[in-house]
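Handoff note, outgoing to incoming analyst
You'll be picking up this chain. Sequence as last confirmed:
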Amino acid sequence: MGLAMILHDEVGDFVAGRSVVVSGLLHPDEWKVLGLTEALSWIKKIGLERVEIEMDAKLVVDAVNSSVGIDSIF
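Most recent structure output, in case you need it:
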């Protein structure tokens, strides 16, 4: 299985891309959490400090944005 990330600048122009190959059997939402974790690690590694992250995983986004616990599989 693979994960892909794309970095755009503030006007939406492509800056860089990254893919990561991982193995294992995970629930689809767990893959999305893993993708977010990999993206955050990449952001830290290249030294970015102010970022906006977009993703298509409502459960993951809600969990990250919540200040209270959410029942989830992760």
